[in-house]
Structure formats: C-alpha cells, structure tokens
Design a protein that fits this description.
It contains four helices and two strands; from the N terminus they run ααβαβα. It has a two-stranded antiparallel sheet. The protein has a domain of 58 residues: Orthogonal Bundle (Recoverin, domain 1), CATH 1.10.238. By secondary structure, the chain is mainly α. It binds calcium ion. The site of calcium ion has 7 residues, from strand 1. Calcium ion binds next to strand 1.
C-alpha cells in the first residue's frame, strides 16, 4: 500500500471542506429581501408624506391625482369627515398590503 503524501492528503481535506462549505452557502430559510423589486415602481407614500399641511389628517386635495387613494378616498373616510385620520389611512395602508405581508 502506497503512503499518501501529507500535502496531497491535506489538499484532499481542503477540497472536501471547501465542497461542504460551498454547500452550506445555499440559503435554507432565507428571510424575505427588504427591497421588493415589484414595489419599487409603486412606492406608497406614508401618512406624513401625504399630510402636506401637517394638520394630522389627509384631505383629498393633499392626495396626488394619480394616487389610487384619490379614488378610494370616500371608502376609507370612515367618519365622512372628508379627511383621512391616521387610523383611517392605516386601514388603507395595511389592508392594501395584506396579501404582500408575510
Ligand atoms: Ca392635512
């Protein structure tokens, strides 16, 4: 039986180790990426961004015309005050993204 040179033996171990280390880099339970590429095109403004005059409510005139909340405004204006409180806006913001939340 031939004696295996120590250097060859060491490199064989190194190879095996590298192979197993490489296998371990495959993510098993990778957390969801913070940046969702599908959301970069439709950035949802926050309550504070929409509350332009900082009176604590969002009136319809503060909502950009192209924003979907402009159309949905009445349905989320629960107390029909013609402005959205933070609570009313939250029900829009959280409800709208419910299917994305995980
Ligand atoms: Ca306001």
């Amino acid at each position: 039986m031939r004696k295996i040179p120590a250097t060859l033996f060491a490199s064989a171990i190194a190879l095996a180790f590298a192979a197993s280390a490489n296998a371990q880099t495959t993510p098993v339970g990778e957390p969801q990426p913070v940046m969702d590429p599908t959301q970069t095109t439709t950035v949802q403004p926050t309550f504070d961004e929409l509350d332009v005059n900082k009176d604590g409510t969002i009136s319809q005139s503060e909502i950009p015309a192209e924003h979907e909340l402009n159309t949905l405004f009445a349905s989320y204006d629960a107390d029909q005050s013609e402005s959205l409180s933070r609570t009313e806006f939250d029900s829009y913001a959280t409800g709208d993204q419910e299917e994305e939340a995980e």
